Amino acid sequence: MKTVQKIIITFGFIIMGNVTFAHPPKNISAVYDPGNEEITIFVEHYSSEPHTHYVEVISISDEKGVIGIQSFMNQTSNDRQVYKMTLKGKKPGDSIEINCKCNKFGKKRKTVVLETV
Questions:
Q1: Across-strand partners of 39?
Q2: What is the CB-side half-sphere exposure of residue 104 using CA atoms within 13 A?
Q3: pTM of this structure
Q4: 18 inside domain
Q5: Which residues, in sequence order, are CB contacts of 112 under 8 Å at separation 6+?
Q6: pLDDT tens, 12-49?
Q7: Among the listed residues 68, 75, 71, 91, the one whose alpha carbon sits nearest the alpha carbon of residue 43
Q8: Which of 13, 77, 98, 106 has the most CB atoms within 10 Å of its CB?
Q9: Residue 9 lies inside a defined structural domain of this protein
Q10: Do the domain assignments include residue 46?
C-alpha cells in the first residue's frame, strides 16, 4: 500500500510542477496597416524556454466567424509571440476578436478595434 501512495504522490508533484511553471498569455495587442491590409499581433507571454513553452495558437474572428488561424511549434522570442497576417475587407473601426493559447496551460482572448498607427 505504501508503494501505491508514493507513486500517487510522485505523479501529483509532477503534474503540479508542470502547471506551476505554465501560465496563460499575459496581454494581446495589435497594429493594423489598412494600406497593405495587414495586421500584426503581439502576444505577451514570457518563457525561458520558447522552444518548449510557447504560444501555440493564435486565431482571429469577426462577427462571421474565424477569419484566420495560425499554429506554432515555438515562440519568436522569450517574451512574446508575433504573428502577421493579411486582413482583407477590414477598415479602421472594425472589431475583431483575437484568441491565443499556451501549449502548456491557459488561454487569452481580447476584442480589438482596428486602428491605424
A1: 32, 85
A2: 22
A3: 0.79
A4: no
A5: 28, 29, 30, 95, 96, 97, 98
A6: 555 544 444 678 899 999 999 999 999 999 999 999 99
A7: 75
A8: 98
A9: no
A10: yes
